[in-house]
Task: inverse folding
């Protein structure tokens, strides 16, 4: 609800910023087109009459290096805080057509000094790196935690109530325009990532952080209450906006893909078992690859442990075994082993479906069921024992 209210309030874009004097701004950058930019970005802008504006950005990492990519897969990439000239930051995001929202914080002098003390006006090379996590410690978390510490925990206390968000739903609504990323998140995130978040925890995402700051207030040392944000404006000329309030629903599309794949294999089986077995091998390879990627990322990556990946029974890495099963059925059409293997995969998927129902039938299981069940059922039919090869 909070995101919807804020989005409605931004239907008319804020005015362009007129920076001046000593001030602290939270910069929220809308999502971009690249995979690394899908979720948006957050940084801190400090202006002063004594020096040029400086943007403090916790999003610096060694881009373009194989070791960095491997660190991301293992779940332990290293990021660090950088200090950048405001003009360079505006030019960068304007070139990506991304909007920069600046929220000026109305902080009493002691709290403003606490923010500056934590930054300490150090050069980028003097700043310590930190271990990044996609929703526990990212650029937005770092900015929010710094402000919360400076205010004596007032923000996290106010935002301690439940939110309508979960980590995976937040990620899915931002990744909706990138089908491979959306599908990977849809298939690969486990129940831990689906746990309800408090409003404070949900502020790991830039847009939700923007919303949370806009609706927070502060108790000043004299006991008076003040809005945390007293002015919102925009920097640069980008036009890209925030992500939709809800993630896309593609259950029917996944069901259609499952029915189409299974139907094509069964249709092929009526004229040529060889062609049908080739289809089974292809379907098994697709399911096995999807399941293997989910398993690898779940065990070694930034997402949840494998026992939390409730889609694994539906998209099992064992599905790749349909490839040798199809070859065996071609060589030994009388054998029952290929059909028994397919029956085992189907039974495993049924167990996964029952567990999903028992656990509340989370949204993304519906699409995964629609994708997996028709393929596995078609495999069982095609791999049945034969007296002769068509």
Result:
């Amino acid at each position: 609800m909070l995101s919807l209210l804020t989005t409605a309030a931004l239907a008319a874009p804020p005015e362009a910023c007129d920076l001046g004097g000593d001030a602290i701004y939270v910069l929220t950058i809308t999502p971009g087109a690249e995979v690394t930019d899908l979720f948006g970005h957050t940084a801190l802008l400090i202006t002063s009459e004594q020096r040029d504006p400086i943007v403090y950005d916790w999003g610096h990492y060694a881009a373009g290096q194989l070791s960095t990519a491997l660190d991301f897969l293992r779940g332990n990439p290293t990021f660090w805080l950088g200090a950048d000239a405001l003009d360079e930051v505006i030019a960068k995001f304007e070139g990506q057509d991304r909007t920069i929202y600046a929220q000026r914080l109305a902080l009493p002098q002691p709290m403003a000094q606490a923010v500056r003390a934590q930054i300490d006006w150090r050069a980028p090379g003097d700043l310590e790196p930190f271990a990044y996590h996609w929703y526990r410690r990212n650029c937005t978390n770092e900015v929010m935690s710094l402000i919360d510490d400076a205010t004596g925990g007032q923000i996290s206390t106010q935002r301690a109530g439940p939110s309508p968000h979960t980590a995976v739903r937040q990620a899915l609504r931002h990744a909706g325009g990138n089908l491979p990323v959306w599908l990977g998140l849809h298939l690969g995130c486990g129940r831990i990532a689906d746990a309800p978040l408090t409003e404070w925890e949900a502020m790991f995402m830039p847009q939700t952080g923007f919303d949370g700051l806009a609706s927070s207030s502060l108790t000043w040392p004299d006991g008076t209450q003040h809005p945390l944000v007293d002015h919102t404006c925009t920097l640069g000329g980008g036009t890209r906006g925030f992500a939709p309030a809800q993630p896309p629903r593609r259950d029917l599309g996944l069901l259609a893909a499952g029915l189409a794949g299974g139907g094509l294999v069964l249709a092929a089986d009526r004229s040529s078992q060889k062609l049908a077995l080739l289809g089974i091998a292809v379907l098994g390879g697709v399911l096995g690859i999807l399941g293997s990627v989910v398993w690898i990322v779940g065990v070694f990556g930034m997402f949840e442990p494998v026992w939390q990946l409730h889609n694994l029974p539906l998209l099992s890495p064992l599905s790749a075994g349909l490839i040798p099963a199809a070859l065996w059925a071609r060589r030994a059409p009388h054998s029952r082993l290929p059909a028994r293997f397919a029956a085992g995969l189907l039974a495993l998927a049924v167990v996964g479906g029952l567990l999903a129902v028992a656990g509340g039938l989370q949204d993304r299981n519906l699409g995964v069921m629609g994708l997996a069940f028709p393929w596995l059922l078609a495999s069982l039919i095609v791999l049945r024992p034969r007296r002769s090869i068509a």
About this structure: Residues 173 and 246 are 6 Å apart (CA to CA).
